[in-house]
Amino acid sequence: MIALSDVSVGFDGARALRDVTLSVARGERLGIVGESGSGKSMLGLAMMGMVPDAARIAGEIVLDGTAMSGAPERVWRRARARKVAMIFQEPMAALNPLQRLGETVMEPLLVHQGLGRSAARARTLELFDEVGIPDPEARLRQYPHEISGGQRQRVLIALSLTCDPALLIADEPTTALDAHVALRIIELLVRLADKRRMALVFISHDLAAVARATERIAVMYGGEIVEGGPTPAVLAAPRHPYTRGLLGARPGIGGQTPGRDADGRRKRLPTIPGSVPPLSLLPAGCRFAGRCAVELSHCAAVRPEPYRLPDGRFAACHLLGAGT
Ligand SMILES: Nc1ncnc2c1ncn2[C@@H]1O[C@H](COP(=O)(O)OP(=O)(O)OP(=O)(O)O)[C@@H](O)[C@H]1O
Ligand code: SF4
Ligand SMILES: [Mg+2]
């Protein structure tokens, strides 16, 4: 559905994405994880053709067979009206507080899909029903502040479905929600992806959510994908020191139990020391050098190539190249 090769997004003197290569097939669910500032949202924006004006973007993006690199804004706009949608990280920012929910969802149907008012209204009711909003008629007339966070997220999902996307990018869709509400939203997204054969890119720093929502995972640090592969395999036995640290820092994730002993007791939390440095201060070699507990002398200067493992996984770390 979408393929990125060596995509970089640069700001003055710093790269928010560095040589990102990944692809998502139709109907496939890919998780993107990483600490705050690792470039997850920027990757989502790149897939939408929405990187900030100040940024320079390089590399190839092929969306549903069409090369989008260097495509003018109007080509991206058409793609966003027909193929690819994003649920943005700030749910309240995406909903106009002064606009009734019905109007909000009808607007793109009127403007981009060319429906008349009554058809747009009927389609909005169908979409509300599809995303599990009870009493859709009553919801049409309500305002964002009158409904719960979970219901708001469902409205945003309905809004993202107005273009009937073949690729949906959901940026932290469960972060602001209680655990049980988050679980319902994850179940909904998985159901929608399966039923519509829609590719889903699920961005989250919540590994429990990603474990439940996705089949494949890409772990990001410093604007790069440092490890990737099938979600259960990567979470059960991460190979990159950063992924190991991330998992160690998040105990008891759903389904899997990294961070716990075999008998289920919680292990002492080995948090990753320090935090993501400013982009401009990241080492030229391995981006994780300086924070890595098992760093080698050449790591900061020499960039590790993605090392392919036999089971379809890869990790970019010199230790793997050394056969460790
Ligand atoms: N307009 C901009 N100008 C310069 N740098 C930017 C701009 N927007 C984002 N960045 C930088 O790009 C990097 C990646 O940011 P991004 O928002 O993608 O991180 P994230 O992984 O989504 O983090 P979070 O988990 O906090 O949402 C950050 O270092 C950020 O400071
Ligand atoms: S390349 Fe070196 S610094 Fe980077 S994760 Fe591997 S061991 Fe650590
Ligand atoms: Mg983000």
Provide a compact summary of the structure.
The protein is of the alpha/beta class and 324 residues long. The protein is built from 12 helices and 12 strands. Mean pLDDT is 91; it is low at 251-270.
Structure write-up:
The structure is a single chain. The protein is α/β, with parallel strands linked by helices. The chain has two domains: 2-83 and 165-321, Rossmann fold; 94-162. 33% of the residues lie in helices and 21% in strands. It has helices spanning 40-47, 73-82, 91-94, 101-111, 117-130, 136-140, 149-161, 179-196, 207-213, 231-236, 241-248, 318-321, and strands at 2-11, 14-24, 29-33, 56-63, 66-67, 84-87, 167-171, 199-203, 216-221, 224-230, 307-308, 314-315. Strands 6-7-8-3-9-10-12-11 form an eight-stranded mixed β-sheet, with helices on both faces. A four-stranded antiparallel β-sheet has the order 2-1-4-5, with helices on one face. Helix 4 (101-111) packs across helix 5, helix 5 packs across helix 7 (149-161) and helix 7 packs parallel to helix 8. The longest helix is centred in the middle third of the chain and has 18 residues, at 179-196. It is globular and about 65 Å long. It starts with a strand and ends with a helix. 42% of the residues are buried. The model is unreliable at 251-270 (pLDDT under 50).
